[in-house]
Amino acid sequence: MLQVTALPLSELRERTSEKWREYPSDVLPLFVAETDFPLAPTVKAALQRAVDLGDTGYIASRTPLPAAFAGFAERRYGWSPDPARMRTTADVSMGIVELLRRVVQPGERVVVTPPVYPPFYDLVAEAGAEVLRVPLRDTGTGWELDLDGIRSAFEDGATAMLLCNPHNPTGTVHDRDTLVALAELADEFGASVVSDEIHAPLAQPGTGFTPFLDAGEAAQRVGYAVVSASKAFNLAGLKCALMVTADDATTAVVRGLPVEVEWRTGQFGLLAATAAFSPESDAWLDGLLRTLDENRVLLEDLLATHIPGARYRIPAAGYLAWIDLTALGWGDNPARRILTEAKVALHYGPAFGDEGRGYVRLNFGTSPEILTEAVTRIAALVDR
Ligand SMILES: Cc1ncc(COP(=O)(O)O)c(C=O)c1O
Known about the structure:
The chain has 384 residues and is α/β, with parallel strands linked by helices. Helix content is 40%, strand content 14%. A hairpin with a 4-residue loop joins strand 5 (137-138) and strand 6 (143-144). Helix 3 packs antiparallel against helix 12, helix 5 (92-103) packs across helix 6 and helix 7 (147-155) runs parallel beside helix 8. It is globular, with a radius of gyration of 20 Å. 51% of the residues are buried.
């Protein structure tokens, strides 16, 4: 395992990505899902080699990425997807839209489970479909899919579901039984499930992450997974994702996509993702998971000490914390006040759906120093 430590703030401020350019330099940015860690050495070497060679043309029609992902899935999840049933595209969002366009007729409804990654609402609309909301159920200790609500949605004519596995923003790792039951429901109603698994490499050890396509035979029939190395390895700007299927009919759908969908894959993204999914990157990813584990616990301590009114449940996956600030009385969208008065940028809770009123989403993929400073700044508002 490697030690993975975030860059110092002075270097981060030199970055030019959205996280570091959206707000002025007196704001600590903990909003968009980019991380503050250096690249994994394997990824850096692959990109460096490409720069040295000027290897910046179009992606090849046969690439090592599907086999690299299959190896990763086998090592990390005990799942053996078939590289012949995968195709690349520019990013997870594009994969979702292209797949929904094929499996849903214009105007049909797609189940989404708020609070959920805000662009899901837009992606369904971009595919010409309509969103049917079936909120997650709050169990008192976590969140889970509302299978009865999803059954009703399918009974009412929804023809697909956009699953977030693991779930953003709650960090929920859906358990295998739930996913098996979801797949059987979809199968019963002839519906499709598009499973966004972008946060899957960041499921913490022992949390039992299950790839949707590995959740029984029905899942193989109804499911499409869209996967990427981009969240764990911070490669979003390089543009590469994989669409994965597990049976002949769904594979035919993916093979039927225009070749342009594949050609939009970034060459740097493809090279970086291939390196990220290689066995040589496992020690770095393990180190990252350990750092994130420390951060998710540190955040709990910081909130308990400085903002006891905050309600936070340690996420099982990822680097996003879903924090209920309702008790502070800062209104439906507390991130607004936090931005203007504490100079900390968090993601707006209500953007994730009505269930996000009073909530903020905080990105803890950073250093303990930045995390501590952010919570300290927010805590100063509590006493005002
Ligand atoms: C659940 C989820 N899906 C998709 C995306 C966007 O992925 P991409 O940049 O590959 O479209 C994100 C980004 O944070 C995400 O959290």
